[in-house]
């Protein structure tokens, strides 16, 4: 007599749990370790800093030097921190590209309820092998990216040094403009005060006195304009420093010392083209693109191995299974990625060529400005300004003593003002051109 079997969900659950319990007990430490590792990252701490929280510190630089300001900027500038963050991200890529693939755990059940039995249930583990060569090539490409980022950091650091130096020199020249304008305003006011006696004595016409008053007003307006320009130069310098809430009392460097030994045109150009951090960065990018191309061209030899065990409750039989899987490279032979990597490799070479031509063109323009400004500064400093200052002082005394008339003193003042303004403009152009030439033509650390 045949006994009919009835399927019981409760007994099935008990039997299945008894079968799978040892397997999951063995895998539990692995799962727990993964959970602990993931939980070690505090996601809440990764919230971005709001604009209101950034740069709230106030720095009083007092009387400082260009070198001290450069050192400060290099210690905290956001442009450098940005490169550091990108470098940390690339280190993560390096770690990730070298990790072995995770095994895959599978559970399967079949014939459940057939003839009232719990059916057949099993677990298997699949692991991929054979990708070690490509992982090593991927890590090599990531190492080359890190090398390129090191040069990128040097590019940014050079830009920061150049921008701080240029902004500091602009502030120095702005300070001199204020001093000059205050001097002219003081002289104009003294001439106006002295001319009142001439007006009362009949030695000066009312018309000429009014013109003297207007010159004093114009001198005061020019002083105000120079002070506003100095304030703007201070704010620009503080922004470049990364300390917009700071203050600078004075810069102790003397722009009059600019010029020194003349720069050699050919030697300076060769130095920029050969040792510029921007050129080195582009060369490192070419090497990195070559490494990526090597990775994409490397044949994929991955294969998977699977092994498992199952239990048939109806026959009370334990079965084992094994399998090997090999991908058939029929449609996807990575040809698209190879084409992309090849094009990016050649594009990196073209970018180096383009940048070298750009630097040559920019160098020619900058060096022309440098040569002209250097000669202007030398001529004004050594020849024009000393004689003009003597001439202007003598003209002032001659006017007050009645030896020359209003027209002559006005012309002398115009010549002196124009020459002084031209000298300061040439001094500023000289400073900016020297900074660019000595700094490999790198500027604008805050972007275009």
Give a quick rundown of the structure.
This protein is of the alpha+beta class and 448 residues long. The protein has helices spanning 9-39, 66-76, 78-97, 132-201, 206-241, 265-275, 277-297, 335-400, 406-438; strands at residues 63-64, 104-110, 120-129, 250-251, 303-312, 317-325. It has one domain: Up-down Bundle (Outer membrane efflux proteins (OEP)).
CATH superfamily: Outer membrane efflux proteins (OEP)
Give, in spatial order, the strands making up the sheet with the most strands. 2-3-5-6
The low-confidence runs, each spanning 5 or more residues with pLDDT under 50, are 1-13, 26-41, 50-54
Question: What is the number of beta strands?
Answer: 6
Provide structural commentary:
The protein is α+β, with helices and mostly antiparallel strands. Helix content is 67%, strand content 9%. The protein has one domain: Outer membrane efflux proteins (OEP) (Up-down Bundle). The protein has nine helices and six strands, in the order αβααββααβααββαα. The chain has a four-stranded antiparallel sheet with strand order 2-3-5-6, with helices on one face. The protein has a two-stranded parallel sheet with strand order 1-4. Strand 5 and strand 6 (317-325) form a beta hairpin. Helix 4 (132-201) packs antiparallel against helix 9, helix 7 runs antiparallel to helix 8 (335-400) and helix 8 packs antiparallel against helix 9. The N and C termini lie far apart (93 Å). Residues 1-13, 26-41 and 50-54 have low confidence and may be disordered.
């Amino acid at each position: 007599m045949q006994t009919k079997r009835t399927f019981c969900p409760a007994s099935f659950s008990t039997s299945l749990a008894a079968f799978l319990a040892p397997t999951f007990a063995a895998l539990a430490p692995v799962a727990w370790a993964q959970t602990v590792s993931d939980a070690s990252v505090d996601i809440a701490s990764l919230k971005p800093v709001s604009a209101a929280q950034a740069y709230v510190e106030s720095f009083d630089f007092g009387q400082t030097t260009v070198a001290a300001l450069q050192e400060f900027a290099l210690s905290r500038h956001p442009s450098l921190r940005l490169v550091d963050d990108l470098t940390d991200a690339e280190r993560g890529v390096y770690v990730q590209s070298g990790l072995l693939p995770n095994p895959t755990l599978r559970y399967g059940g079949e014939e459940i309820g057939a003839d009232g039995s719990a059916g057949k249930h099993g677990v298997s583990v699949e692991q991929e092998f054979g990708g070690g060569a490509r992982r090593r090539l991927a890590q090599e490409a990531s190492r080359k990216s890190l090398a390129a980022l090191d040069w990128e950091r040097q590019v940014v650091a050079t830009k920061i040094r150049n921008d701080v130096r240029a902004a500091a020199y602009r502030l120095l020249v702005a300070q001199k403009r204020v001093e000059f304008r205050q001097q002219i305003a003081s002289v104009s006011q003294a001439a106006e005060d002295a001319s009142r006696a001439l007006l009362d004595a009949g030695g000066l016409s009312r018309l000429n006195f009014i013109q003297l008053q207007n010159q004093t007003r114009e001198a005061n307006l020019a002083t105000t304009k120079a002070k506003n320009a100095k304030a703007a130069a201070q704010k620009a310098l503080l922004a470049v420093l990364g300390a917009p809430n700071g203050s600078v009392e004075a810069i102790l460097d003397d722009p009059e010392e600019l010029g020194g030994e003349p720069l050699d045109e050919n030697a300076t150009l060769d130095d920029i083209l050969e040792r510029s951090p921007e050129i080195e960065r582009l060369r490192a990018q070419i090497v990195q693109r070559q490494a990526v191309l090597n990775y994409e061209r490397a044949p994929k030899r991955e294969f998977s191995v699977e092994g498992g065990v199952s239990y048939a409750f109806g026959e009370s039989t334990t079965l084992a299974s094994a399998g090997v899987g090999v991908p058939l490279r029929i449609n996807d032979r990575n040809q698209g990625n190879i084409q992309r990597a090849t094009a990016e490799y050649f594009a990196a070479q073209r970018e180096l060529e383009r940048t070298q031509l750009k630097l040559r063109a920019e160098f020619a323009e900058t060096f022309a400005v440098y040569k002209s400004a250097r000669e202007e500064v030398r001529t004004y400093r050594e020849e024009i300004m000393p004689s003009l200052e003597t001439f202007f002082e003598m003209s002032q005394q001659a006017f007050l003593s009645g030896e020359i008339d209003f027209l002559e003193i006005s012309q002398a003042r115009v010549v002196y003002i124009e020459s002084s303004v031209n000298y300061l403009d040439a001094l500023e152009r000289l400073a900016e051109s020297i900074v660019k030439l000595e700094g490999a033509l790198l500027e604008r650390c805050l972007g275009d």
